[in-house]
Amino acid sequence: MSDATDSKLTVHRGMATWGERLAPLEEFRRATARVGRQLSQAERLAEQQRFLEQERDTTPLEGPYSRVVVFGGVYNNHLALEAVLDAAHKHRAEAVYCLGDLGGFGPSPEKVWPLLLEGEVRTLRGNYEESLAGGREDCNCGYTDPRDNHFATLSYRYTAENCSSDFKSWMGGLPPRRRIRVGRRELLLVHGSPRQINEFLFDSTSPVSFLEVLLDQESCDGLLCTHTGLHWHRHLPSGRDVVNVGVIGRPANDGQPGVWYTLLEDRDAELGVELLPLEYDHPALALEMQQQGLPQEFIDTLRHGWWTTCLEILPARERSRSRY
Amino acid sequence: MPTIEAGTPRVGLRSLDTLWFQVAGTICNLACTHCFVSASPTNRTHEFLSLEAILPYLEEAAALGVKEFYFTGGEPFLNPEMESILEKALPVAPATVLTNGLLLDTERCRRLRRLADQADYSLDFRVSLDGYAPETNDPIRGEGTFDRILQGVSNLVEAGLNPVITVTEVYEDNGTVRGKERFFELLRGLGITKPRLKMLPVFQIGAEAERTGAYETWQRLRDSDALDEGWSHLQCSSCRMVTDQGVWVCPILINEPQGKMGDALAETLEPFPLDHPACWTCHVYGVSCKT
Predict the structure, then answer these.
(1) Which of A226, A233, B30, B184 is most exposed by smallest CB count within 10 Å?
(2) How high is the pLDDT of residue B229?
(3) In Å, how far are A86, A152, A265, A270, B187 from A92, measured between CA atoms?
(4) Per the omega criterion (within 30 degrees of 0), is the bond before B277 cis?
(5) Is A36 close to B260, i.e. CB distance below 8 A?
(6) Using 50, 70 and 90 to split pLDDT, how confident is the model at B40?
(7) Does domain B12-213+238-267 have CATH number 3.20.20.70?
(8) Which of these ranges, A21-25, A54-58, B1-5, has the smallest mean pLDDT?
């Protein structure tokens, strides 16, 4: 072992690192004991309450409804959008909501716009809309893997170049959140989370206490979000619900070509939450993607249902279930 | 108490998303030359955190809506209670352990896999590696560590756990596109089909200050450095760090008594002044210690 390493192994005997110098351990401990706030138990509780308090959300309430369809992540998939609008009609949904991320991944971004308008889809602004409307150069995903950055940039640029400025400015005018009433329950609809448009709420990394605090802060009975691409539902101990409604633009990394949307129903005693699979003409979309020169990696995902790029966002558990 | 210069920005805690535990204190079975807390076998600046000491923080963090826990050191698995601590933490929130990989024998990896399977939330591991060959890694992390780290990684993978490999930019090359590709190649060579990698810049404090020199006086943040959205990109706007001596603002500043904010989390919810040069690194490099 070199002298340098030897000294690293012995230098701290009885000494603490204090910034850039060494100080006797006791001196460091005495200093840390003097620093920081000291509150009584009652003051701590008051401080905690003050910290969690939030201004009341003034987003206007829509509804009341007894049955609505909600989905996210269209990703230019106009064929899945047609299919989900058909499904909503069959469910006799009173309203259809889209939680944002209209572009990326799929072909011909402009095609989804008339469908959203004609279908009277009440749409939120996702981070993709924010980037497109703001004229950003790329999606700012900042992956570690250069391969992921390559594909993310490619799909963002394709969407940005093939969207009209009218469509982009329409996106920019979409609201970042909505509140709806289903039965007697008030639900908050956001893209990522109530706090951040691009926060990921994955099943395995959204603990119950965290979700309860979010719902307390927003004074709502339920929260609907998307952004991750993976759907899940948690019925909380407080009786409230959190639903990641999933995306209709690409499969849920589950080895199936189908995509997912959510049906909400007022069932009086409880909120009926059904996460439903949706079949659509994915071979036709794959063909369009080929004609548009989009990467084979994206087309493969449509066909076999496994994500092939940008998997870095997945938490350990979701990644372990993933093929790639 | 030292006075804070005028014009020093203060960062509020917007939410307590990430709670760190200095679970092994500054005690480590290695003495890496770039360690920003100078952890080593003899560094007792911070001692092990006991399970008993951690329990009240888990409860308080849950009440504050914490999103995830991180366990670091030193080397977390030197703490004999590490696995019991995970058992108590995982019902509250997902957890990540930052390890040097040396204590990951096959038996421990099997136990960790069981913990991960039984948990409500994700249990993740980060293993540190600083070069894609012994020639570059070992001068930083210690003689023979390259092979031992890869053995630990292989044991995790064998048990069905897929760690994130954390690489610091001790070598300029590490952070380049080619550098990152070489790390991915190394991991694929180990039979890891889904390699995961995180890059971290180095902080010029602790052992690293001796290696490459400390900060210059101009490397300080001022109010005017704030981005349009303020300081919300800094991890101290959403994290705190618990050590055996109380709660610090972030994982970087635990060797500065001034980085301590209180003993209970409720005492650390006020804004913190960014008057340390390491804050400059977080700002300029967009550092987040979390994955």
Answers:
(1) A233
(2) 81
(3) 10, 37, 11, 20, 51
(4) no
(5) yes
(6) very high
(7) yes
(8) B1-5
H or E stretch covering B184: helix B177-189
Give the three-state DSSP class for A306: coil
Q: Is the peptide bond before B74 cis (omega within 30 degrees of 0)?
A: yes
Spans of all domains in chain B: 12-213+238-267
Q: What is the pLDDT of residue B228?
A: 83
Question: How large a percentage of chain B has pLDDT more than 70?
Answer: 99
Domains of chain A are 1-32 (no CATH), 61-320 (3.60.21.10)
Instruction: Name which residue leads in pLDDT, A308 or A13.
Output: A308
A22 Cα to chain B: minimum distance (Å): 10
Residue pair B58/B92 in contact (Cβ under 8 Å)? The answer is yes
- Beta pairing partners, A225: A244
A24 contact partners, CB below 8 Å, separation of at least 6: A14, A15, A16
Confidence of residue B230 (pLDDT cuts 50, 70, 90): confident
Provide φ and ψ at B97, rounded to 5°: -110, 130
Distance CA A243, CA A264 (A): 10
Average pLDDT over residues A225-234: 98
Written as six digits, the tokens of B127 are 């293993």
Q: Say whether B257 and A317 touch across the interface (CB within 8 A).
A: no
d(CA A74, CA A103): 7
**% pLDDT > 90, chain A:** 90
Residue A10, pLDDT above cutoff 90: no
Which pLDDT does position A5 carry in this prediction?
A: 52
Q: Which two tokens stand for residue B272?
A: 């913190």
Answer whether B59 touches A (CB < 8 Å).
Answer: no
pLDDT average, residue stretch B144-162: 97
- Nearest by CB to residue A205, choosing from B65, B94, B207, is B94
pLDDT at B156: 98
User: A67: buried, middle or exposed (CB in 10 Å: 19+, 13-18, 0-12)?
Assistant: middle
Query: Which residues of chain A neighbour B246 with C-beta distances below 8 Å?
Result: 32, 35-36
Q: Measure CB to CB from residue B122 to each of A48, A50, A205 and give the nearest one.
A: A205
Smallest Cβ–Cβ distance between A204 and the set B121, B177, B264 belongs to B121
CB contact under 8 A, B266 and A44: yes
Long-range contacts of the stretch B234-237 (C-beta < 8 A, 24+): B234/B11, B234/B274, B234/B279, B234/B282, B234/B283, B235/B18, B235/B282, B235/B287, B235/B288, B235/B289, B235/B290, B236/B11, B236/B13, B236/B272, B236/B274, B236/B279, B236/B282, B237/B11, B237/B12, B237/B13, B237/B14
State the Cα–Cα distance between residues B192 and B156, nearest whole angstrom. Answer: 11
pLDDT of the residue at A3: 46
A268-277 contact pairs (CB < 8 A, 24+): A268/A183, A270/A235, A270/A239, A271/A182, A271/A183, A271/A185, A271/A187, A271/A221, A271/A222, A271/A241, A273/A233, A273/A235, A273/A241, A273/A243, A275/A231, A275/A232, A275/A233, A275/A243, A275/A245, A275/A246, A276/A87
pLDDT at B2: 62
Q: What is the mean pLDDT of residues A258-279?
A: 96
